[in-house]
Amino acid sequence: MAKPKNIILTVIGARPQWMKASALSRILSDERWNIEERILHTGQHNSHEMSGQFFEELKLPKAHHQLTVSSDPGIRMGEMMHGIMTAIEVDRPEAVVLYGDTDSTLAGAWAAARAGVPSVHIEAGLRSFDRNMPEEVNRILVDQLSDLLICPSESAVIQLRKEGIYSNAREGVSVELAGDLMLDSARYFGGEPSPANPHSNTVLITLHRPSNVDEIESVKNWITNISSVLNKQNWNAIFPVHPRTAKALNAAFGSNWEEALGSMSIEVKNPAGYVQMLEWMKEVQQVWTDSGGLQKEAFYMGRPCIVLRDSTEWIELISKGYAKLCPSPERLESICLALGSAQSLDWNQNLYGDGHAAECIAKSLQRWLNR
């Protein structure tokens, strides 16, 4: 008689998790792993632009559980926790699988711990060392609650050890290095990186963090300085606008904010799918972003990146020169000039694995579930 499949409950709720989950779900669908994956969508991002189109283009299986939650962070966290615990009662999984550092991730770790179910944290060990970022608090707490911690880089493994989290640190805990699932997705959907066109005069911009866009003066300052740099370089920008940012831009520049940005050499786009973002990266000279995931996507596509923040969890990109931090809008021009071009950087360094992280994680899951 065939051995019953191990059931895992995968919790996802925000854009970066779609790409990671799709890479692993494709591998786990192979019968050789003897794993049945159940998917719970917390509803943290629930619009078509920020959720639906990603499920469609990444060919993610339809969620088995779909939550509807409040936009208020405190209320939403409680609703997500309750919904995940309910799903655990229904599915009775052997483990709850979590990705990254969102509120959905923390809700899943808490619910699993309260239900007495082991949790698997994929992308464990990352630290920006900036606790003003909600994601940093989430990472620290989830790593403390998790049982199988899967790291994308050697530095993440080292960081966990510094915090006293390592294999056999307590009964059942295991720390493993697998590489980054985002590299799997970038290669699957975007192919190998293409050389940057040295004559490209375009940059790709995203801006959505509360610290950058929630205050009118802050978002206005960023846009003004971005426009100034573009004009001095004789560049233009592609700017897919997050719903949160659109609201801020409307407050800062008025109802005709799209036309106002257009006059500043900034082409406004609707929120884009993952594949479209990869295609845009092939066209541009640089990427300017306050997103965590896009920093690595830029690296995987061979494009230098300015991180519109004063810290990042992807410390290798900074130390190796593939990205530079820009903590204030006024410093954008000097940092842009210092970053240099794609042609001046060695893109062959293997910082986050070999593009087969999903296979490695599937082996770790199978071994760990059957321990």
Number-wise, the strands total 13
State the low-pLDDT regions, or none: none
Tally of helical segments = 16
Binned strand content: 15-25%
In short:
The chain is 46% helix and 15% strand.
Key phrases:
single chain; 371 residues; alpha/beta; 2 domains; seven-stranded parallel sheet; six-stranded parallel sheet; 16 helices; globular
Describe the structure.
It is a single chain. The chain is of the alpha/beta class. The protein has 2 domains: 6-189 and 353-369, Rossmann fold (3-Layer(aba) Sandwich), CATH 3.40.50; 194-344, Glycogen Phosphorylase B (Rossmann fold), CATH 3.40.50. It has 16 helices and 13 strands. The protein has helices at 15-28, 48-57, 73-91, 103-115, 134-145, 154-162, 181-190, 210-213, 216-233, 243-253, 257-262, 274-283, 292-300, 315-319, 332-339, 357-369; strands at 6-12, 35-41, 65-66, 95-99, 119-122, 148-151, 174-177, 202-206, 236-240, 266-269, 286-289, 305-307, 323-325. Strands 3-2-1-4-5-6-7 form a 7-stranded parallel beta sheet, with helices on both faces. It has a 6-stranded parallel beta sheet with strand order 10-9-8-11-12-13, with helices on both faces. The protein starts with 5 loop residues before the first strand and ends with a helix.
